[in-house]
Design goal:
Two copies of one chain form a homodimer.
Chain A (H helix, E strand, L loop, with lengths): L3 H9 L5 H19 L2 E4 L16 E5 L26 H8 L3 E6 L27 H8 L5 E6 L5 H7 L2 E4 L19 E6 L2 H12 L13 E6 L8 H16 L3 E6 L2 H21 L1 H6 L6 H11 L3 H20 L6 E5 L19 H6 L3 E8 L5 E8 L4 H15 L2
Parallel strand pairs in A: 2-3, 2-4, 7-8, 7-9
Antiparallel strand pairs in A: 1-3, 4-6, 5-6, 5-10, 9-11, 10-11
């Protein structure tokens, strides 16, 4: 895979140039994307490539749920075929402002919901890459680009990162702007990032927003809570073994590991995610549902119709439970730095008609806490099994540092 | 002015029809908008008008900061001249889904910021109607339509409502969706409403969202906190007299009135509003600033350039202060039902190049609490002096009830 930090180091040292790095990614897309189908559109060549800004030389894929002024934006739906927004979404404008090069729009599932896209898993094209940020995860995993932008409303960053064996970072809610994306559920939609490693994804995010998020080495091994959730029985034996293996390696490397049982408030939070998502999506997509229901996939249409039937009182009660879950999620970190949990139920399903399930992600999206998929482990067939490092709200740097710490140890 | 509740009652009683009510508003716009200039676009006539849905027969003006699929959307900027979105903003789609008729797009200031628009104050065209929801307030005040949708990021609902002598309701943050509007500051942008009276604006909002927001009569006179803020010395003598008069009338009608001094946390919250707004606006408008700075008004361009220079650390500190202000705002209602305060510094300035100031509104937008402008009082020249009823977060119905209670007593 292409590394953000290596490209920037090489450019800084004069061994590479921004233009050469972007040109290489263009060639890699030409070479590989026919099979992977990670890109919805590739940027036209306008002329010389910027060599200024902290991210100059980084080719970025942007999930096609974000508006871009220079490339059509489909939101993964035939309804928006050929739609050309007038302006970049804020996170896209930020990306360009820092000198990065938006090389293309990456394939999203339909409106970032569940209908599988055409993208293949680079590890084995018979498997799904996960969703909804399918193209962003696959493009990084296939080594075409060093960084990609996605979104997570349920598990749409961490799950495809796990399935594709890359680092995926879902920041604290609202740390990065979600404007200019096609809203699905406004209290859940979270902008996130993909790169080869925790160090790379942290560097990219840090340079993008000007915050101290870099995954510097830790002075001390982290205190890790091995999170035992109410849905662990739905993880595959392989995934449970991967989490146990990661914990063992961390312990052997000096981390303190304590088991943490899921609080009732978090279990209940997981249960109301669908109510909040459904209610908000029915409002966000009210136009499409009213005028173009036939152009929606049956799953999405049913979800929106069910969402439209949710009463405000039921939504308010779900939001109250979400608040309780958020408070409980803060208390989880009283004694530990981060939690360790499965990133998904198992490896990517060998089924291109599904994107998997957000079961292990959605309560962390609901509570808004930072999550990082840590790649490195696989099943016996070599398919990636990601484990998830979860941090306290607003402590994104600590989550990224712990993810980097663990990733380095899993790799050795 | 046209009354939402009277129109709906007349239709229900068979004295009026949805089609006749909409047709009347069309004729009133034809007759009056040449002078007032409240409309950016008027809906084309497509055929028969819906007579189903709880808001059938209500002609609604939608601030031109919201996307509409059937009318161009300018965001008040020449940059978006002729821009035709593909989909309605969620609140617009909701409006149509409830049977209301979106009769036109109302004039907004440039990107809902400070540059004055061409709209005149219906009480005296030499005066500003206020902003940024200039057209929405003026269209209701001029009796052209019974209801209008606006937004408030600083004081853009309550202030023009005060200047134009109509009821303006800024709901609790996120009670109504703000998707599909041109985002300015995502933690501040709040969708709100205008109508002739508190009863009308409450009924419109209630039928729009399916929540119990109607301004039913109170069993007991409200407990009112007469709010003494750190900026009261910037209100005109007329405005201070209007607030005192409203308090006197309320007291004479049985309300308990206690003075409440502004807590330090709220004063500090008011001071950081500009930091949060500026930082977020620079991100939200990054595309326009990067590519079209020359097409922005000098005031907006400077605000965005200053916003771009705000460090994330300063923004985070401002957000911390906003959180403290929110907590303090909750405690304000320990002993009272609502607060009473000026809606603006005074009457609408006799200056069409300004829209006035949000000084008396912005901390309530920041804290997300419901506010209602109560019309009824005027200066000696007959220009409206609105007073503001402020409620506890999430207690929108109580704020609307208290506003209705007060409005009724001011009118007698």
């Amino acid at each position: 895979m292409l590394s953000v930090s290596k490209i920037l180091e090489d450019i800084a040292a004069g061994r590479d140039s921004a233009e050469a790095a972007i040109t290489r990614s263009r060639a890699l897309i030409d070479e590989r994307d026919g099979e992977i189908q990670a890109f919805e559109a590739v940027s036209p060549v306008y002329g010389p490539i910027a060599s200024e800004g902290p991210l100059a030389g980084i080719a970025v894929g942007v999930k096609d749920i974000f508006d871009s002024y220079d490339m059509p934006t489909t939101y993964g739906s035939p309804l928006y075929h050929g739609y050309q927004p007038r302006a970049d979404a804020p996170v896209v404008a930020m990306t360009r402002a820092r000198g990065a090069y938006v090389i293309g729009k990456t394939v999203t599932t339909e409106f970032a919901f569940m209908k599988a896209s055409r993208t293949a898993n680079p590890h084995d094209p018979a498997h799904t890459p996960g969703g909804s940020s399918s193209g962003s995860a696959a493009a990084v995993a296939a080594g075409m680009i060093p960084a990609a932008i996605g979104t997570q409303t349920g598990g749409s960053v961490v799950r495809p990162a796990s399935f594709c064996g890359v680092s995926g970072f879902k920041p604290s809610f609202r740390l990065f702007p979600s404007g200019g994306m096609k809203t699905f559920a406004w209290t859940l939609d979270t902008t996130g990032f993909f790169a080869a490693s925790a160090r790379d994804v942290a560097l990219f995010a840090a340079l993008l927003c000007g915050r101290d998020l870099t995954a510097d080495d830790l002075d001390d091994a982290p205190r890790i809570g091995l999170y035992r959730s109410a849905v662990d029985d739905q993880a595959s034996p392989d995934m449970l073994a991967a989490v146990a293996q990661a914990a063992d390696i961390a312990r052997a490397s000096g981390a303190s590991i304590v088991e943490i049982a899921e609080p009732e408030e978090i279990r209940r939070g997981r249960e109301v995610h669908a109510v909040i998502q459904g209610y908000e999506a029915a409002i966000s997509m009210a136009h499409e549902l009213a005028y173009h229901a036939d152009a929606l996939s049956p799953t999405l249409r049913e979800t929106l119709e069910e969402g439209r039937a949710i009463l405000p009182q039921a939504y308010d009660e779900a939001r109250r439970r979400a608040r309780h879950a958020r408070k409980a999620a803060t208390r989880l970190f009283d004694e530990v730095d981060v939690l360790l949990a499965p990133s998904a139920t198992g490896v990517a399903p060998r089924d291109r008609d599904t994107t998997g399930t957000a079961l292990f992600n959605k309560v962390w999206t609901l509570t808004g806490v930072p999550c990082v998929n840590v790649p490195g482990l696989t099943d016996s067939a070599g398919m990636p099994l990601g484990v998830q490092v979860i941090g306290r709200f607003g402590r994104d740097k600590q989550a990224l540092q712990a993810a980097n710490w663990l990733e380095t140890r899993l790799a050795t």
